[in-house]
Structures are given as structure tokens and as C-alpha cells.
Amino acid sequence: ATPASLDFIREMIAADVSAGRNGGQVVTRFPPEPNGYLHIGHAKSICLNFGLSQEYAPNSRCHLRFDDTNPTKEEVEYVDSIQEDVKWLGFDWGTNLFYASDYFEKLYGFAIQLIEKGLAYVDDQTPEQIRETRGTLTAPGTHSPFRDRSAAENKDLFARMRAGEFKNGEKVLRAKIDMASPNMNMRDPIIYRIMHAHHHRTGDAWCIYPMYDYAHPLSDAIESITHSLCTLEFEHHRPLYEWLINNVDGLPGQPYQREFARLNLTYTVMSKRKLLRLVKDGLMNGWDDPRMPTISGIRRRGYTPAAIRTFSKAIGLTKYPSLTELNLLEHYVREDLNKIARRVYAVLRPIKVVLTNYPEGQSENLEVPNNPENEADGKRQVPLSREIYIDADDFMENPIQGFHRLVPGGEVRLKYAFCIICQEVIKDAEGNITELRCTYDDATRHGAKPVGRPKVKGTIHWVSAAHAADVEVRLYDKLFTVEQPDEEAGEDGDFTKFLNPGSLETITAKIEPSILEAQPGSHFQFERVAYFFADPKDSQPGKPVFNRTVQLKDGFVV
Ligand code: ATP
Ligand code: MG
Ligand code: MG
């Protein structure tokens, strides 16, 4: 198979394959740390790594590897949610599920190898002292007084670190590289630290844990990964990645690392730390709140895996940081839902309309298509009777110019039914409109346009009052009021002050009765309103709850 479109990563891989590197195999991995839920940014990385594996099948595979080297922040809940999310996106790791913690013994052995080669040493300095002696971008760091310990002493101390003889922070193992390197990551980086903490998989077996920068390249090599693809912030870690691959002997694979720009989206934040804050501070109703940019949040909002995959392909891969418009993501969601969402009638802000010339106590059923975009979805019966609801937005007592819907004395078409004329506006003592009294014209049924009759410009939707169901509807909007809450808040600023107070409005809507059988987790277009998703968590049999997934279009329609 040949890749569909060649971005710089795919070009590089295609060149490797045609040169026969690794026997033409492409082995990638998606390596999340189980310290939070995945977000839409991770989806970009998942679509890339698993996508490459599909493009190069059968000479390929993609591993799901949990980078679980920091026991204090990691939880089984996150491990489970990550697997669910990757599957939901439509990818399959098969038998290739791994944990960096499974390599703790091997990684320990590699550290001993480095000690024996004189390439690692135990440092007794405190983490603060180590930080202070690292130097600056313009000045080299200073050597630790413990830098020249013998291999024998280092081996003994490292074994005693493992045995639990020392407290947290009392000692670390450092790689012995170059304290004058222009790359700060090469100034004798810490590769092991003491942490007396319970690990979600290894329990209390270990009290020393490898640092990410040490565990990651070696885990890649252990799994014979060929291409280790990560985001730009790791570019400065690449020399250390290569140093480890080159200096540790007996590695099964020789991976190399390349970086691409992470996904940044407007009107949201995308770091697990910040998302965790929103959850822990109760600012969101959990990780799967439909306003969250998490995979579980957008799934519950009604985004589809196909839309996310198409979006990922469309944004492509670049070497430079960029900001992607939320609008673009919504565009792909809308495009997919247009094909698959069943249409129903719902009135979000009802005004009652009485059809004064429609016989009292009578009703009829109109046949309407479930999805005009897809005939195979069939038709359904929609009841109509003397009293109906229309949306308050579809009536203007004092119409602005260009308003083509219902106005006093004006005429509008009720979709799939007939035309009505507003004869009278009824108000309560405070002057609020309580009812519109209209007459209908039987000659205009089924879209008929009798000759010589004045033209009717507007068409609106409606529901029969006697048949309508009252249903809870959640209107979701942008999570933040500014495009880049991170940037606007600055490093120490508080991004939560830009949370959109209108990001959730809960209303009771009047909906056609067929909706009561809606299966939780199904997609709908409320005609002329927006796309909605029957909430998989809060919907009850016969009592669905709807989340607004996305507007029909961007901007306002007059
Ligand atoms: P965050 O910085 O959002 O907390 P992370 O990078 O710490 O996330 P990891 O679990 O370490 O999260 O990431 C797993 C993989 O996903 C890494 O390869 C990382 O580069 C990639 N990734 C994370 N965020 C993005 C993003 N916004 N766009 C593309 N890839 C991302
Ligand atoms: Mg991380
Ligand atoms: Mg990160």
C-alpha cells in the first residue's frame, strides 16, 4: 500500500521503506501517560500512528503503550478510558498492548550497563542543588562533586536505592554526558529518582522510577518501534533520545524520533493538567462533560469518530506550531451528521398557534421523510391538530426588513403541511404574547402552489400541541469566550476566568412524539434548529435527554 498524501512524516517513512530500512517494516506507537483522559489533540496523534499502520499493512503495526512511569499521577481509571477512546476512534492495537512498567527490570539492567560503561552516576545532591548547578543557556553547568564515583561504588549505591535504603530525593541516578552542552537536556539529566509510591501495576515492587526521557526511547527500542513520532516540545529531547539508543547495547530495535506540531484549537484548552483542574474544581461535570475537548466529552456531545478522522486528515502535519479553528472541526462534524442524522421536529422556545378554521378534536398524520439526504432512512408519520407550537424565533410582531417568516397579517408555510395566515396576536396583562390565532389554507397542502395565489416566502417547522413531548434539551456552546484562553491568561494567569458562562443552557423543548423512542447514543437533526445527540448517560427509556452537538450553520439566519 502507498500512503494517500505525503506530508513530511509520510515522505520520510516512504523513503525509509523504499530503502529497505528495518526490512521495510513500519512500527509506530501511541504512548499516552495514564494521568488523565485523552483529548482531541491526542486524536491527531492516534490517527497519525494507527493511520500509518493501516497505510503500510501488512508490513506494519501500531502499539498502544502506556507510559506509566510516574506512579503518583497515574490511575487505572485513565488506563481504561484511554483504551475505550482509541477503540471508539476506530483503531485496533490487536495484541500490541504494552506498559512501560513491564520493562522496569530491563530498564534497570540498562542503567547498570550505563554505570559500568562510566556513563551514569549516583548523585547525592538535592534536586534543588542539581537544578542550580545546571548552568544557563549562556553559561555551562558545574560538575557534581559525586560525578567521578567509581563504577563499583555507583553500582552499589544504585542497588541500595532500589532496595529502599534512601528516602525520596536523597539520591538520583544521572546520565554522564556533558555539563557544557548547549542543549540543557544533555547536562547530565536525571534518569532515575527515588519515589516511595504505590504503582497501579507493579504495586510496591519498586521505589525507584525511571524518568520519561530515559524510559521512552528505551521502551521504543525494546518494542522494535521504527518511527517514534511525537509533538514539537520533544524536539530538544531528541539528542538524549539518540544518545540512549546509541549507548545502550543489546537493544532489539533502532528507532528514531521525529516531531510534528501539536493540535491547538480555538476556544478551548488542551493540556491534561488544565482539563484536570476543570474537573477537580467542579467547573465541569466530569471528564465526559460534553463541553470538554476530551474524546469522552465530544463523544457524549455527539461528535462522530468518522468526523474526527476526516478532520485529522484535513489538518495534516506541519513542523511549525499553529492554531486550528474550532469552526473547522465543527464543519466536519456537521458534514458527517448531515448524512446520518434522522430529522425530527422540535420547538425549543414554543409559542402556541391555534388554527381557528381547523376542526376541533380532529387530527391527522402527515408522512415526512426521515432524512431527505438519504431515502433509505424511510418515512414517518407526524401528527397535526388544531393547536400547534412554533418557535418564538419564527414570529416577529414588528418584523425587521427581510424577515420572511410569520408576522401579523402575513403568511408562512408549515413544512410538509400547508400555509397559515396570522389573524390575531393574543397577549397577557403584561403584554407577553401567549397565543397566535391563524387560519390555514387547505389548497396549499403537500407543497401545492395554486396559480394566482400570493407567493409565500417562508417555511417553518412546528409540532402538534396535543401530541408533543416535553423533553430536556441541553444547549452547549463554546467553552471559553476567547480564542486562546491559555495565551490570554499568561503563564501564571488564571485561564478559568475566560470560561463562557453561557456554555450550557438547559431547556424543556416541545418535540414530536416519535422522539420518545430515541435510542440513547443516536443522532438527530432537529429540523431548522441544530444537530442533537440522545445523551447515552442521562437518557431513560421513554425519556430521552438531548445534547446539542453542533449548529446547522455558523452565524445567524434571517
Ligand atoms: P498534555 O500535554 O495535553 O497534557 P501529554 O502530551 O502530556 O498531553 P501524553 O499522554 O504524554 O500527553 O501524550 C501521548 C501522545 O500524544 C504523545 O505522543 C504526545 O506527543 C501526543 N499529543 C499530546 N497532545 C497532543 C496534541 N495537542 N496534538 C497532537 N498530539 C498530541
Ligand atoms: Mg506527558
Ligand atoms: Mg504534555
Automatic annotation (TrEMBL):
Catalysed reactions listed for this entry: tRNA(Gln) + L-glutamine + ATP = L-glutaminyl-tRNA(Gln) + AMP + diphosphate
Biological-process GO terms, alphabetical: glutaminyl-tRNA aminoacylation; glutamyl-tRNA aminoacylation
UniProt motif ('HIGH' region) ranges: 32-42
Binding site for ATP: 33-35, 39-45, 231, 262-263, 270-272
Record: residues binding L-glutamine: 67, 212
Glutamyl/glutaminyl-tRNA synthetase class Ib anti-codon binding domain segment(s): 341-441
One Gene Ontology cellular component annotation held by this UniProt entry: cytosol
Family of the protein in this entry: Belongs to the class-I aminoacyl-tRNA synthetase family.
Quaternary state and interactors: Monomer.
Name of the protein described by the UniProt record: Glutamine--tRNA ligase
Organism: Brevifollis gellanilyticus
Phylogenetic lineage: Bacteria, Pseudomonadati, Verrucomicrobiota, Verrucomicrobiia, Verrucomicrobiales
